[in-house]
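User: Here's a chain of 199 residues. Predict its fold as tokens.
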Amino acid sequence: MAAPTIYYIRHGETEWNALGRLQGTQDIPLNDLGRVQATHAGGVLGQLVARHGHDISRLPFVASPLGRARATMELVRETMGLSGDGYTLDDRLREIGYGKWEGATLPEMQVADPVFFARRQTEKWTLAPEGGETYADVERRVRAWYDTITTDTVAVAHGGTARALMVTLGFETPQGAVDLPIQQGAVYVFGPDGLSKYS
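Assistant: Prediction complete.
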């Protein structure tokens, strides 16, 4: 059986995104641009699934439980003429936890602990801030989620989980994925033949 295709959307922008603050597990709502991005992603997704021959109403939809992902999912679905609430939640898709770094910017963290900050710049996949997760931790839970997927699926989650999925499926190395920008308002298609981005 062919591997399922994942239509993956990162949540729209929040004010913390705009300010460069690490959100992690904090529940920060979409801002106005984030809502526009979510609606745009819904339009892109509708075109993609039609091109791929799917009945959009039959595809499973799953989101991270964090509010910014849920709000994005609901706007995506409504843009395609679906009910906003026709999706499930999976905690394994939540954003990477940044522990005590959440709410701070990277320059602030560099000033607060320059030695640890410098070390993490070279060991991001395996080193976590105090109380946080490593990308390796996130990769394990995203792998566990992916292993339950048996059919093409729409997922709305986060930048960190997108990077983990790229590594899980062999599309990126940890070193290549860890600083890769994940665009908001785009659809990433993780398919049997590779990874593509549509915006």
